[in-house]
Structures are given as structure tokens and as C-alpha cells.
Amino acid sequence: MTAKEIFEKNIPENLTKNAEKLSGINAMYQFIITGDQGGEWVVDLTKPDGGEVREGKDDAAQCTLTISDQNFVDLYTGKLNGQMAFMTGKLKVAGNIGLALKLQNIMGD
Q1: 60: which residues sit within 8 A by CB, 6+ positions away?
Q2: How far apart are CA 64 and CA 102, in angstroms?
Q3: What's the confidence (pLDDT) of residue 105?
Q4: Do 63 and 94 touch, CB atoms closer than 8 A?
Q5: Domains plus CATH for the chain?
Q6: Average pLDDT for residues 62-82, to the nearest whole number?
Q7: N or C terminus: fewer CB in 10 A for the chain?
Q8: Cα distance between residue 12 and residue 9, in whole Å
Q9: Phi, psi of 67 (to 5 degrees)
């Protein structure tokens, strides 16, 4: 599993599945994934029906998360705890840190 696969397949499925839970967030996340399997993606929860995921950058994002490709996959699959990743510097958060706490709803159940 790669970060690209997660952003193209898994997260859009989670957005659809959890649309009701996500409707109150009304925010945009910027993900900067470093490393050979990295890239930049936007998770836009300002859209109806759970939101959308798109590749690229959006300066309007209220929360930017920077993490390596392998750490992102580990975070997504549950091998890496999000709070521990943040406290050890593996995950960097800029902007509204409160929004970062709501990421569990985006990542899955």
C-alpha cells in the first residue's frame, strides 16, 4: 500500500461512508507526503456529500500535515499512533491543530 493508493482509493471511500460524521467539519486539509512515494493531496470537506480528495496543493487549507510516505502508511494502517507521531516529530501540523484531531473520521473507523 502506498500513500497515493490511500489518497486515491481508501480516503474517498471513507469520505463517502462517513459523510454524515464529516458534514460538520467544513474544513480543508493539505497533506504533504515526503519521500519517494510521496506527493501532495488536498482533502476538502467543504464540499457536499462527504467531500473530495484531489492531488495538488491548495493555499486555502486550514490544516497542513507533513509526514513521510512510510509513516503515513503506518499511520493509516494503525501501526503508528497519530499522537505519538506528532510528539516524536514524525508528523508535523501547521494551522488549526484542532482539525488534526478530527482526522480519525477521515482515515477510517
Answers
A1: 28
A2: 13
A3: 64
A4: yes
A5: 3-107 (3.30.1050.10)
A6: 95
A7: C
A8: 6
A9: -155, 150
